[in-house]
Write a structure and sequence with these properties.
The protein is of the alpha/beta class. The chain has helices at about 5-25, 75-80, 130, 190-195, 200-215, 230-240, 255-260, 275-285, 300-310, 335, 350-365, 380-390, and strands spanning about 35-40, 50-55, 60-70, 95-105, 115-120, 155-160, 160-165, 175-180, 185, 220-225, 245-250, 265, 290-295, 315-320, 340-345, 375-380, 395-400. Strands 3, 4, 5, 8, 9, 16 and 17 form a seven-stranded mixed β-sheet that branches. The protein has a six-stranded parallel β-sheet with strand order 12-11-10-13-14-15, with helices on both faces. The protein is globular, with a radius of gyration of 21 Å. It starts with a helix and ends with a strand.
């Protein structure tokens, strides 16, 4: 899609959003079951089926949201393929923006008509992790993949059959229900089809560099994996002032975009007969990089990224979601000499505090999201969006409702 066509598409989408909000104000659905379209996956490795489901009203401390746009993320594909454990049948999706349709008893953080972003990494503000200055893995999250709301039930049904939720958000549906800890109000003027990326991909990568690694000015970084999250990591390294940012990927077609986003050079491991960590050591005069990031979710590249950073003060961050059943084996000498190996979820951001600020920064021009979005598709073309992801032909596809 050409730039002019993207602009017109964006304007059309915004007009649709305005109509949707107006419709919500005129036609009250509060307290009623809503019938709507959703993309349901019935079993592992099967395509999405667009069907009409029933979405129950929100219970106490819950929020029902009309989804306006949702990104196609690799984590959703992990759930689809079985690499990430989920319960079927399920409604996937977790990177979105929408409008509050109604709220349950006791909800005060948002109200009907508010533009919001659902949070797969919630922030209750009460648990020990939320209260810790460095914590952001709230106990209200659903990393155990229960596929249910906190009361042990689901708000989704199809012809009387219960459907499971995904990461407490389930955004591949026209309407979803989330806990109040998993939603935050954002700028009403923010374009949903762009800021939905702040709900996962952009924030995860950008924050991995800014928050988790705390990349320093003048440092050298290596980013393994140049998809949407990897490119966001590149953006974070650049924003932090890194002097060298080396992109690593087996798909050379991603290199021009990576350089556009801030990578100073790119390497393809397939071009070398020796391990990629040795290649990176050679590119850094035998020192290794100061910071490395694994943004793929493979155990072999995780250990390669660790071995690529400086043996004494290097830091390697795992950003990519690993397969549920995977295990990793490595020599303890890799960390005995002083390296730091750590993980990063949602970029280390405390979601309710950070997401509105990130949206404001985007609206203020502090960073761009457009270069990350290669395809904007209607919701019913969701299977096409995932094929683009798997084939490496897209960075981020966004589904609009």
């Amino acid at each position: 899609m050409k730039k002019g066509e993207q602009t017109r598409s964006s304007e059309t989408t915004q007009r649709k959003q305005i109509r949707s909000i107006t419709k919500l104000n005129i036609m009250s659905t509060a307290g009623k079951v809503i019938k709507c379209k959703a993309a349901v996956v019935w079993e592992v490795k099967k395509p999405f089926s667009i069907v009409e489901i029933e979405v129950a009203p929100p219970k106490a401390h819950e929020v029902r949201i009309k989804i306006l746009a949702s990104g196609v993320c690799r984590s959703d594909d992990h759930g689809l393929s079985g690499a990430m454990y989920v319960k079927f049948p399920v409604i996937l999706g977790h990177e979105a923006a929408g409008v509050v349709e109604s709220v349950g008893e006791g909800v005060t953080c948002v109200k009907p008509g508010d533009k919001v972003i659902p949070l797969f990494a919630p922030q209750c503000g009460e648990c020990s992790t939320c209260k810790h200055p460095r914590g952001n893995l709230c106990k209200m999250g659903d990393l155990t993949a229960s596929g249910l709301m906190h009361d042990g039930t689901s708000r989704f049904t199809y012809k009387g059959q219960q459907l499971h939720t995904f990461l407490g958000t389930s955004t591949f549906t026209e309407y979803t229900v989330v806990h109040e800890s998993a939603v935050v109000k954002i700028d009403a003027a923010a374009p949903a089809e762009k800021v939905c990326l702040i709900g996962c991909g952009f924030s995860t990568g950008y924050g991995a560099a800014i928050n988790s690694a705390k990349v320093e000015h003048g440092s050298t970084c290596a980013v393994f994996g140049l998809g949407g999250v990897g490119l966001s990591t590149v953006m974070g390294c650049k924003a932090a002032g890194a002097t060298r940012i080396i992109g690593v990927d087996i798909n050379k077609d991603k290199f021009p975009k990576a350089k556009e986003m801030g990578a100073t050079e790119c390497v393809n491991p397939l071009d070398f007969k020796k391990p990629i960590n040795e290649v990176l050591y050679g590119l850094t005069d035998g020192e290794g990089v100061d910071y490395s990031f694994e943004v793929i979710g493979r155990t072999d590249t995780m250990t390669a990224a660790l071995a690529s950073c400086h043996m004494n003060y290097g830091t390697s961050v795992i950003v990519g979601v690993p397969p549920s059943a995977s295990e990793i084996t490595f020599s303890p000498l890799l960390i005995f000499t002083g390296r730091t190996w750590k993980g990063s979820i949602f970029g280390g951001w405390k979601s309710k505090e950070a997401v509105p600020k990130l949206v404001s920064d985007f609206m203020g021009g502090k960073f761009a999201l457009d270069p990350l979005i290669t395809h904007t598709l209607p919701f019913d073309k969701i299977n096409e969006g995932f094929e683009l992801l798997r084939s490496g032909k897209s960075i981020r596809s966004v589904l609009v409702f």
